[in-house]
Amino acid sequence: MRRWYLIGLFVCLLTVPTMAQQVDFCGEVVPMERDFVSFRLMDVIKRNLRYQGYLPALRSKAEMYFPVIEPILQQYQVPLDFKYLPIVESGLTNATSPVGAQGVWQIMPGTAAELGLTVAGNYDERNHLIKATHAACRLIRMLHDQLQSWTLAAAAYNCGAGNISKNIRRQGSRDYYQLMLNNETAQYIYKIIAIKQLFESPELYLPGFGYNVFAKRDSKGSVFANPQTPPPGNIQDFNTIRINIGKKALPKQSSTVYTARLQTNAAFRDGELVSIHMLDNMQANGVYVGRNASLSGKGWIVSNRVYVDLGFGSAVVLCATDGKKGVPLDLLKTGGEVRLLSTDSHISTSLMNTRNGNVLADFSSSWSSSSSFK
């Protein structure tokens, strides 16, 4: 019975618009319409969810490391999704692999020398977060310049550009999700994307959350958090499927930010209602919400932040003023200003008199680097 329940959850992923809700890596769309891709990604995510007790500690560690890593990625014009690569490589520790890779970025000794890092005796710059991140960015840029794809560059970080190029020539495809690679590299991008999903959209994997990936929709798009009944018969092994679909560029979505005030709930518990008082006019999913109106939705705690389903699906996301999804649990004790990030493609700005209808670019916070990481 449990086996069929899990399969049912996986099958739901293929039919829900929220997951066609554009899973991407570095702006390159993950082809979730292919059965073997969606099943493999969900399998990796499911395995990570078994260790949910470890995820809060990993997120706390990332909060220290990411402010150092992100500005360096930006300096080299490397997409910020690469900040998740060292989590897969080392769990953000100065680990030593059996083959000699070292540090958060798991750089091999020979590669370190080529990238200008000093590896001598007791002094190893692969363990210096800032220097190693600069070196990793130089390597990633070189891999991208050679392969012309961030996804392939990440795969090459794992197994080498030569191996990726050889497989491209032999198999006649530049699509990572179609290439037949060694087992480690074949799962590598999926692991990075799984970490990204669990970090950036944890609410999508909470069973009680209204628009999670396991929810089904009716013809009008309303959401019911009930897994679908699995179909009869066996599901085809994703390793045997070959679909010739090329890489797609992620379409850009305009984002609008609205302001609201969070109402207090000092004793908040999972599944309780979270209420906000609108300070702007907002229109999303064809619904107009006026200034001074109140909205409520169930909230769920993930690593001391509360993720709230306000009933707009993924088109409207409640954020704190720091621009991060969800609101700090402590803010529910005091109340305060919050933001609603809308990516609804049908927003009509001419109908609204918003006070804070600025674009997402103005909503991002600046990162500060630190030299305390060795």
Could you describe the 3D structure shown?
The chain has 374 residues and is of the alpha+beta class. The protein folds into two domains: 2-220, Lysozyme (Orthogonal Bundle), CATH 1.10.530.10; 256-363, no CATH class. Helices cover 33% and strands 16% of the residues. It contains ten helices and 15 strands. The strands form five sheets. The protein has a seven-stranded antiparallel sheet. Helix 1 (2-15) crosses helix 2, helix 7 crosses helix 8 and helix 7 (150-159) crosses helix 9. The longest helix is centred in the N-terminal third of the chain and has 21 residues, at 55-75. The radius of gyration is 22 Å and the shape is globular.
- Helix-strand string: HEEHHHHEEHHHHEEEEEEEEEEHE
> Count the strands?
15
CATH fold field value of the largest domain: Lysozyme
Helix and strand composition category: alpha+beta
* Low-confidence parts: 1-20, 214-250, 345-374
Supply the CATH class of the largest domain: Mainly Alpha
> How much β-strand is present in the residues?
15-25%
Question: What number of domains?
Answer: 2
| CA-based shape | globular
End-to-end CA span: 50 Å
Gyration radius from CA atoms, angstroms:
22 Å
The average pLDDT is 75
Main sheet: strands, sense, barrel: 7 strands, antiparallel
The level of helicity is 25-40%
Q: What's the total helix number?
A: 10
Strand order, biggest sheet?
13-15-7-8-11-12-14
CATH architecture of the largest domain: Orthogonal Bundle
